[in-house]
Structure formats: structure tokens, C-alpha cells
Amino acid sequence: MTAAYPALRLRRTRASAWSRRMHAETVLTPADLIWPLFIVEGEGVEQPIASLPGVSRWSVDQIVARAREARDLGIPCVALFPYTPAHLRTEDGREALNPDNLMCRATRAIKDAVPEVGVLTDVALDPYTSHGHDGLVDAAGYVVNDTTADLLIHQAVNQARAGADVIAPSDMMDGRIGMIRAALEGEGAHNVQIMSYAAKYASGFYGPFRDAVGSRGLLKGDKKTYQMDAANSEEALREVALDLAEGADSVMVKPGLPYLDIILRVKQRFEVPVFAYQVSGEYAMLEASVAAGAGERDALVLETLMAFKRAGCSGVLTYHAAHAARLLNA
Fold this sequence. Notes:
- Strand 5, helix 4 and strand 6 form a beta-alpha-beta unit.
- The model has no long low-confidence stretch (mean pLDDT about 95).
- The protein is of the alpha/beta class.
- Helices cover about 40% and strands about 15% of the residues.
- Helix 2 (about 60-75) crosses helix 3 (about 100-115) and helix 7 crosses helix 8.
């Protein structure tokens, strides 16, 4: 006589597709995605980025078309990053304060044409400096905190005046969130959100992004004096706590997949909206896997995005946003 099998078979709820959907603990939708877009001068321009296969720089008119595409796919927000021409890059990054710079023109164009799509703008000086750092550099090559923060305040206000919905400081200077929040309140921009890059690590995964914004080869030294050490997680919690206390509405962990543990710890500790940036190197690795025949793009994209949601993310910045949304809408 066969021994009685235990009453509970965990495979029972996995036996059919409808049941797997019904029992899913984590749900991924296009509304969980933010689409990073790179802006370049010109009209009708698309410039493919070699180290980011499938990703291009777009002129402002084409950025508007991407925003319409995002709306139609159910992606709620786009994130903008400029490719500043070399002649406009200076030691002090002053082009960041120009109310007619690429970022501001693209923001205004999107908000005029597709107002229902959110616009997230990057606050940092690296797309504008001739040395590739996120802030001002002293004679010893050290990125100075307080004078950089003063410029970031003006950069944030400049972007808010252009119509930015979310200001995203990515520079990792101390104290800048509180100062930016105060400046936005002083402008009457009470509903402009701040998504702080609260735990941004000095990572080897940023190379293709630097190609995309034109800063690769410009950088003198590294960014380890202001971006976080990959060895540290308690420090990330301290960074998040400070930014929340200073007025951040949400926080970001960057990069993404190598720092899922940080995402989980931040979510469990603070119970606030946490976002991740699936950065350029992560995207490039997935695409290289596909090109080598080591994996299937659709499955890899959705599985990695689900990992972010499972770890506690409210949303993910990903260059696969449009592709993932099409899969999820199918």
C-alpha cells in the first residue's frame, strides 16, 4: 500500500497559467517603468549609441515622439539626460543654468505636447563640465561640496521653471536635498517632486552612460570621494535617512541588480517609495548575452525587472522600458 502523501503539494497552484497569475505575489506593469532618454542638438536626429545597442540620442522633436510612445505604452514618466556639445562644456558647468539648454527645451516640448507624461530631470554637473565630474573641482582635483550644492540649487530651479515634474539630484553632494527643497518652495513649486539618488555607488557599470552623455574620456580621476563605496550598506541607510529628513519624496538606489540587498534594506527600514536605476552597464550585459545566444531577451528583461519589484521597488528606470511595456501589454 502506498504511503499517504502530505496533504499540501506546493506545485498544485503552479499547474496552470491562470493559477500562476492568480497566486503571483509580485505584479509588474508598464506603470512601474521610467524610460531614460538622451537628448542631442538638431532636428530629426537619431544617433545610435554603440555601447548601448538599441539606444539612441534623439533631438528634441524626436524626444517628444518618444514621450508620445511612452504615453501610448502606459509608461508614466521619462527621464532626460543631455549630450552637451563640447564647446558648451566648461570647468564650472555653467550651461546647466541656461534656461534654454537641451534639458529645458526638451522638458518644455514634452510638457507642451504630452502633458500627461511625467518628466524627470537629472540634477548634476557631469553632462556640462569639461572635466566630467558631477561638481566643481578645486586645484587638488577634489570635488568641493558646498559651492557645488549652490549651483545645483540653481540648476534644479531652472529645470522646475521649464516644467520638470520630478527633480532627481544624482550628484551625491551632502545637504543638497534640503537646499533644493527650500529653493523649490521659495519658487512656489510645491508639487515638484524630488527623487533623490540617495544611495548611488561608485560603480564600474556606468561606462556606456558616459558614452551617451559624452563624458567618457573627460573624467579626471574617479568619483569615489562622493559616490558610495560598494562595500557599504549601513552607510546607504544613513544617506537615505538624511535625504528623507531633508525633504525627498522618494529615493533611488543605483546601480540596480548588484544592489538588490540595498533596495530591500531601504524598503524595510523606511517604508517609502524606492526606485532603482538599471544602469547602462546592466543593460549592455543583457544585450551582450542575447547577442551571444546565452539568453532570450524577453525572458531576461522581464525577469530582471520583476526582481526589482520583488525587492521592494516602486519603479525602475530602465532602457528596456518600451520593450518591456510592449511585452506586458501583449
